[in-house]
From TrEMBL:
PROSITE patterns: CYTOCHROME_P450 (PS00086). GO terms for biological process: lipid metabolic process. Its cofactor is heme. It comes from the Eukaryota. Gene3D superfamilies: Cytochrome P450 (1.10.630.10), Histone deacetylase domain (3.40.800.20). The keyword rRNA-binding does not apply. InterPro entries: Cyt_P450 (IPR001128), Cyt_P450_CS (IPR017972), Cyt_P450_E_grp-I (IPR002401), Cyt_P450_sf (IPR036396), His_deacetylse_dom (IPR023801), His_deacetylse_dom_sf (IPR037138), Ureohydrolase_dom_sf (IPR023696). Heme binds at C342. This is Histone deacetylase domain-containing protein. Belongs to the cytochrome P450 family.
C-alpha cells in the first residue's frame, strides 16, 4: 500500500486522476455488509446516480428549512437536558448526549421520524453499533417503502431528506426497480446514518473537548458571542439563526481547527485501476492500494507548519481582513475533496456552529477526564469511552438508591480550584514556582526541577501537610497537631512518605506490595522517618496474593495500635482499589468486602475521617468498590444488593 501525505498527492488522487482511483474491489468487499451499494462505498454508475440525486437535494430550500427547524428544536431540548444536569450538580457523558442529539435531529431531518433519544434514560439500540443500525433502519423503512406505494391524495408532501430522495428517484427511468428494492433502500438509509448522525456528534464532541482544554479559546469564543449576538447571551433567544451564526468568525475558526485535527473520516483507501504517475513523480502500479490519511496529514509539520500538533484557531484567520483564510480542499480534507467532496459541507458547518454557539452562550462545559479521552479508529473518528469518567461512582450510587434517599446521607460539594495562596499555605514558594512555570495549569512538570524543589523542602524540614497531586490540601489540616494518614494501595505511597518523613505532627502508615522490581521500589519496613518525624513513618509491606482475612487482621492490629499510641485528632484513609483481585496491575487478592471491612473499622474509631479513593485499573470493579465504600460510610452497606447493577455512565 502506498501512503501519500501531501496536498498535491491528494489532489492527484481525488481530482486530477479521479477515474483511475476508485474505492476498488477490496474496499467494497470490506464495506459491503455495512454500506452495501450506498454512496460511500459505490463506484461508477451507481455512485454517479446517487451523487446526482443527492446534489439536487442539497440545493432544495425545503431541506434547508426542515433542517433549521429541526436543529433549533432539538438544540432547545439539549438545553433542557444540560440545565437539569447543572441543577442536580451531576456530570454527563457529553459524547453520548451529543450522539443522542444528532440521532434525534438526523432521524427527523432524514426520515421525518421522532426517536425520543434525548428523553430516553439510555441509548437506543442502534446507537451502540452499526449492526443494530441495520436491523432498526430496516424496520423503520418498512413504513417508508409503503409510502412509495400510496398514490398522491393531495396531502402536503414531506420535506425530510428521504422523502425528497424518493420523490427524485421516482422520476428516473429505473424508478420501479429502485423503489421496491429493499437492499437499495437499506443502503441509502445506512449511508445517511454515516453522513448525518456520527460525524455531527463526533465533531461536536471533539469541539467541546478542545475548547475545554484551551480556556483562552473558550474565553475568546464567549467574547465574540457576547459582542456579535447579545440577544443570545441575554436569553432573548435560545438558538441563533443560520444568518446570525455566520457572523461568528472565530467560532468558525475553532470548528475548522477541530476538524483539521479530528476529521470525521480519518483515512480513505483508493485502488489504482491502471498504472499511474503522481505529479511528484511517484509511480503507482495498477492494482495497488493508495491510502489518504486525513487524520495524519492534518498533524504533519510539512503541511501545516511547525505548530501542526497544536490547537491554534488563529491560523484560520487573516490578521489583515479578520476573515477566514481560504485553504485548499486538498490540504484541509475534513469533508473530502474533488468529485466525492461532501455535498452537505455547508449545511453541516452551519449545524455545528448553530449548536456550538447556542450551548456556549449558556453553559461552561468541562471535560472531567481529559487524560482518558482518545478515539476509536474506525470508519469515522468517535470518542472512545465516556467523557465524564470521574463521576462513575456517583452515577452508580444514584442507580442503587431510590431518588432522594442518597441525599439524606450525603451532601455533594462542587470542587473549587485552589488559588496559589492556598497552595503556598502547604508548600514552599520554590516548589509552587516550579509547578506554575512548567505545569501551566496541567500535570506536566520537568522531573529534575520538581525533584530539586521537593528536596529543598525536605532539607528545610518543613512540616508539610500535603502534596498538591495527592489532594491533601484540605481546609483545617494545618491546624491539626496530630494527624494519621493510612494508605492502602498495591503500590507504596512514596509521595505521602516523602511529604511527611520529617514531620512530628503527621504519622503515615502504608500497606502495599513489596517485591524486587515492583514499582516504585520504596516502602521497606526500615524506612521509619527521620529527624522529628523519626518512628512516625510505618511501612507494612505485603506479599503477593494476600487475602481479605489476612489483610483485615493485620490492618486492624497495626492501625488500632497506632491510634492508641498517637491519639490523632483526625485520620486520613486512602483506599486504593488496585488491591482488588482482578486488577490488571495489582497483586493482592482482596475483594470489596475486605476493603469495606477496613473502612468500617476506621469509622468505628470515632475519629474525624477524611476518606480518599485512589488507584484501580479495572473500571467496573473500581466503580463498584467505591460505591460499596460510600455505602459503608453512610451506614448502608448491609442494604446493598448482592448484584450491584451496572450503569449507563461506565463500561469495562
Amino acid at each position: 500500500m502506498l501512503v501519500v501525505s501531501t496536498p498535491e498527492a491528494f489532489e492527484d488522487v481525488l481530482k486530477n486522476q479521479f477515474m483511475n482511483f476508485p474505492k476498488g474491489p477490496h474496499v467494497k468487499e470490506n464495506l459491503q455488509d455495512l454500506l452495501g451499494d450506498g454512496i460511500f462505498a459505490a463506484d461508477g454508475v451507481k455512485w454517479a446516480h446517487q451523487r446526482d440525486v443527492a446534489r439536487g437535494l442539497f440545493r432544495m430550500r425545503e431541506l434547508r428549512d426542515c433542517m433549521t427547524e429541526a436543529i433549533t428544536r432539538h438544540t432547545k431540548a439539549l438545553h433542557d437536558v444540560l440545565g437539569k444536569v447543572c441543577a442536580r450538580n451531576r456530570s454527563v457523558d457529553l459524547h453520548k448526549l451529543l450522539s443522542c442529539f444528532s440521532t434525534e435531529a438526523f432521524a427527523e431531518i432524514s426520515f421525518g421520524m421522532k426517536m425520543g433519544c434525548l428523553r430516553a434514560n439510555k441509548e437506543l439500540p442502534f446507537q451502540a453499533a452499526f449492526d443494530s443500525a441495520q436491523r432498526l433502519t430496516a424496520q423503520r423503512f418498512r413504513v417508508l417503502s409503503q409510502r412509495a406505494l400510496v398514490p398522491d391524495d393531495g396531502a402536503p408532501k414531506s420535506t425530510n431528506m428521504l422523502s425528497l430522495f424518493l420523490d427524485t428517484i421516482a422520476k428516473s427511468p429505473k424508478a420501479e426497480e429502485q423503489l421496491y428494492d429493499p437492499a437499495y433502500l437499506r443502503d441509502v438509509v445506512v449511508n445517511f446514518l454515516v453522513a448525518g448522525r456520527d460525524t455531527t456528534a463526533q465533531a461536536l464532541s471533539w469541539f467541546f473537548y478542545n475548547v475545554s482544554q484551551n480556556p483562552h479559546v473558550e474565553a475568546k469564543l464567549r467574547r465574540e458571542i457576547y459582542k456579535k449576538l447579545p440577544e443570545l447571551v441575554n436569553s432573548e433567544v435560545c438558538v441563533p439563526t443560520l444568518q446570525q451564526v455566520n457572523r461568528l468568525v472565530y467560532l468558525e475558526a475553532v470548528m475548522k481547527e477541530t476538524l483539521r485535527l479530528y476529521p470525521p473520516v480519518p483515512m480513505s483507501p483508493k485502488y489504482a485501476v491502471r498504472d499511474a504517475m503522481l505529479s511528484d513523480g511517484t509511480f503507482v502500479a495498477a492494482g495497488s492500494m493508495v491510502c489518504l490519511p486525513m487524520y495524519a496529514m492534518g498533524r504533519m509539520p510539512h503541511v501545516w507548519g511547525p505548530d501542526a500538533a497544536e490547537f491554534n484557531p488563529e491560523r484560520w484567520i487573516d490578521p489583515a481582513t479578520k476573515k477566514i483564510v481560504s485553504v485548499s480542499a486538498f490540504k484541509f480534507v475534513a469533508f473530502n475533496a474533488g468529485p466525492r467532496m461532501c455535498l452537505g459541507t455547508t449545511l453541516a458547518g452551519l449545524e455545528l456552529k448553530l449548536v456550538a454557539a447556542s450551548l456556549l452562550s449558556r453553559f461552561h462545559i468541562h471535560v472531567e477526564n481529559p487524560e482518558d479521552v482518545t478515539h476509536e479508529f474506525s470508519l469515522t473518528l468517535p470518542v472512545k469511552g465516556p467523557m465524564n469518567r470521574e463521576r462513575m461512582t456517583l452515577a452508580l450510587l444514584q442507580a442503587i438508591f431510590p431518588d432522594g434517599e442518597l441525599s439524606q446521607h450525603l451532601q455533594l460539594l462542587a470542587p473549587t480550584m485552589a488559588t496559589r495562596g492556598e497552595i503556598e499555605a502547604f508548600h514552599t514558594r520554590d516548589y509552587v514556582d516550579v509547578l506554575y512555570e512548567f505545569g501551566g495549569g496541567d500535570d506536566l512538570v520537568e522531573k529534575n526541577r520538581l525533584s530539586s524543589a521537593r528536596k529543598r523542602e525536605n532539607e528545610r524540614r518543613l512540616e508539610e501537610f500535603g502534596l498538591v497531586d495527592d489532594a491533601y490540601v484540605f481546609p483545617g489540616l494545618g491546624r491539626m497537631s496530630r494527624l494519621l494518614v493510612v494508605d492502602i494501595d498495591v503500590h507504596h505511597g512514596d509521595g505521602t512518605q516523602e511529604a511527611f518523613y520529617y514531620s512530628e505532627k503527621v504519622a503515615a502508615i502504608s500497606f502495599h506490595l513489596r517485591e524486587p522490581g515492583f514499582f516504585p521500589g520504596t516502602g521497606a519496613d526500615t524506612e521509619i522517618g527521620a529527624g522529628r518525624g523519626k518512628c512516625n513513618n510505618v511501612n507494612v509491606p505485603q506479599q503477593r496474593g494476600v487475602t481479605d482475612s489476612q489483610f483485615r487482621e493485620l490492618f486492624q492490629r497495626v492501625v488500632g495500635k497506632a491510634v492508641e499510641t498517637m491519639q490523632p485528632e483526625m485520620l486520613v484513609l486512602v483506599c486504593g482499589v488496585d488491591t482488588l483481585a482482578r486488577d490488571p496491575l495489582g497483586g493482592f487478592n482482596l475483594t470489596s468486602d475486605g476493603i469495606c471491612d477496613c473502612v468500617e473499622f476506621v469509622m468505628a474509631l470515632q475519629l474525624p475521617v477524611l476518606l480518599l479513593g485512589a488507584g484501580g485499573y479495572s473500571g467496573v470493579d473500581a466503580c463498584k468498590t467505591f460505591s460499596a465504600i460510600v455505602a459503608t460510610v453512610i451506614g448502608q452497606r448491609r442494604n446493598l444488593p448482592d448484584d450491584i447493577p451496572e450503569h449507563d455512565f461506565y463500561e469495562e
